[in-house]
Design brief:
By secondary structure, the protein is of the alpha/beta class. Helices cover 38% and strands 16% of the residues. The longest helix is centred in the C-terminal third of the chain and has 16 residues. The structure holds 2'-monophosphoadenosine-5'-diphosphate (ATR).
Length: 245
């Protein structure tokens, strides 16, 4: 891992990285945008996201990808394969930051047609909704409105940082009224079980944990670098152990 401090000369670090023998690397916050001018090529999805999390080195050229959204969707599908077959499920994305953007894009491109977005700031949600295609139906909601409509959704995807941190009991919306058949997913992975997911469970809904997204994003990146598929096997349990400290 290459640690970069905020005071470091980023260009100089990139020059050194260029000289290294490797197939590629991952980029994390806060460098997902900053890396872009250093690439030789950027994949269409990453360009639309305005963020790169995976770089492949091919014949000395750096090509940037973004596997966040697709990695997330792969994680969700692997846990709920039958439910995710139906592309008309009503999906609500909570939040409209970078993660929401990647997930929305992945859902649209996988053919899901009913994807609403609820966010504190309406403009960011409207901006994400521009990524829809001709089959997508998207409504932008306030968080209050989303709270009143919980019984209408089949899948909830919580993408904000609300609820992050041990002991944090905050929830982006109250889930009262959620259907027992609903899937509630939270991308927050610290704690593994957020208050939002606890509440969903107590209401009888199925839950999907955020840490699995990390695993599948990594699996995706590895495929891009090597063309090899890595089975998940025990990795889920191992990551949970690491996160629990
Ligand atoms: P990321 O790129 O990881 O998704 P981000 O771009 O900082 O992170 O996005 C954070 C999201 O969490 C945004 O949707 C933000 O809402 P705003 O667009 O209104 O800022 C949302 N968010 C963060 N803290 C929040 C809070 N206390 N209440 C409601 N939404 C919150």
């Amino acid at each position: 891992m290459l640690e970069i401090n905020i005071t470091d000369d980023f260009s100089e670090k990139m020059r050194k990285l260029r000289a290294k023998e490797m197939d590629g690397f991952n980029v994390t916050v806060p460098y997902k945008q900053k890396i872009i001018p250093y690439l030789d090529e950027i994949d269409e999805e990453a360009e639309k996201m305005g963020a790169v999390n995976t770089v492949v080195k091919e014949n000395d050229r750096w090509i940037g990808y973004n596997t966040d959204g697709r990695g997330y969707l792969r994680a969700l599908k692997s846990k709920f394969p039958a439910q995710l077959e139906d592309r008309t499920k009503r999906i609500l994305i909570l939040g409209a930051g970078g993660a929401a953007r990647g997930i929305y894009y992945a859902l649209v491109h996988d053919g899901y047609t009913q994807i609403d977005i609820a966010n504190r700031t309406k403009e960011s949600a409207l901006d994400i909704a521009k990524l829809q295609d001709e089959q997508t139906e998207t409504h932008v909601l306030t968080l209050d409105k989303a709270e009143q409509l919980t019984n209408q959704y089949d899948i909830f995807i919580q993408t904000t940082s609300v609820g992050m941190g041990q002991g944090n009991e905050d929830m982006i919306i109250s889930l009262d009224g959620v259907k027992k058949s609903a899937i509630v997913s939270d991308i927050v992975y610290q704690p593994i079980e957020t208050a939002f997911l606890k509440k969903a469970k107590s209401l009888g809904a199925s839950v999907h944990y955020g840490h699995t997204m990390l695993l599948y994003q990594a699996q995706y990146a590895f495929e891009i670098w090597t063309n090899k598929h890595v089975p998940m096997n025990q990795m889920d349990e191992e990551l949970q152990e690491i996160l629990k400290g």
